[in-house]
Amino acid sequence: MTRVEIFEMGPRDGLQNEKRLIPAAEKIALVDLLSQAGFRRIEVTSFVSPKWVPQMADAAEVMAGIRRAPGVSYAVLTPNMKGYEAAKAARASEVAIFASASEGFSRANLNASIAESLERLAPVAEAARADGIPVRGYVSVVTDCPFDGPTPPSAVARVAAALRDMGCYEISLGDTIGQGRPETIDAMLAAVLDELPPERLAGHYHDTAGRALANIDASLARGLRVFDAAVGGLGGCPYAPGAAGNVATEAVAAHLAAAGHDTGLDMGVIARAAAMARSLRGEP
Ligand code: HMG
Ligand code: MG
């Protein structure tokens, strides 16, 4: 049995796109339940501009309210130094910086070119290193961009290498709009693996077209052992038209278990968290 880790994204990627402003207490309850499920890492919230993502405006309140379980890393997204300082004050266990493999999505999500966004992220990574806070990196639109079309694998490898050079301990590869196919994921990974070993990569696949599990299988075959997912299949990115949720944690865990991989998760707790996640978004 090989160990495969699921990095839980529900409270951040899952909820950031919800129209109803979810009270902080409900987000805290979800994180507290997830803390009992056996995850090593949970992405709790993001310290981004509240003008851009109003749902995450309560990031500090959520971070202050959660009950931290020993051995769990509570991660947050930080797009710039302002976000980093707030994340540090909130005692984030780790931070994540994010860049795009396409110019169109970079402009839509970060109001900057790829080069400008990397310049803005470098001081975040440097400050985190000085403070001893681990930094994870994301590359978005790794196979398909809603604005620019298919993404060349070499563009993904370039941005992944830039994030590695800044000191990211792991790079998560985002199929932001869930249009990747096993073949395009494989071609993308082939290029990225020229820059980084599989132990430093994670797959972050949205399930818009229902291919996320097949894309995970293609990634397992390339040696990846970490996948991002969200309980209840929550989510979508506000700046990626048509993006559906992250692949559901419960589906990934069951799929991995059937293939003989061990995630170390308590499926009873996961089922309760998935139900809670669905009720947060007003589903029956
Ligand atoms: P901007 O408008 O160019 O920046 O946005 P600005 O510096 O001019 O700031 C505008 C206002 O926001 C100012 O306020 C700033 O102070 C404030 P004002 O002076 O007008 O009152 N501000 C902030 N407030 C709180 N925290 C901050 C912060 N920064 C600025 N950190 C910016 C540039 C990067 C800030 C903006 O574009 C932004 O916040 N973007 C984030 C968008 C986002 O969160 N997208 C979703 C997450 S990424 C994702 O989902 C993909 C992923 O899941 C992987 C995948 O699926 O591919 C990770
Ligand atoms: Mg995402």
From TrEMBL:
Keywords: Lyase, Metal-binding
Domain of life: Bacteria
Domain Pyruvate carboxyltransferase: 4-271
Entries under InterPro entries matching the protein: Aldolase_TIM, HMGL, PYR_CT
GO molecular function, one term: lyase activity
Statement: the UniProt record of this protein carries the keyword Ribonucleoprotein: no
SUPFAM superfamilies linked to this entry: Aldolase
Family under the similarity heading: Belongs to the HMG-CoA lyase family.
Protein's UniProt name: Hydroxymethylglutaryl-CoA lyase
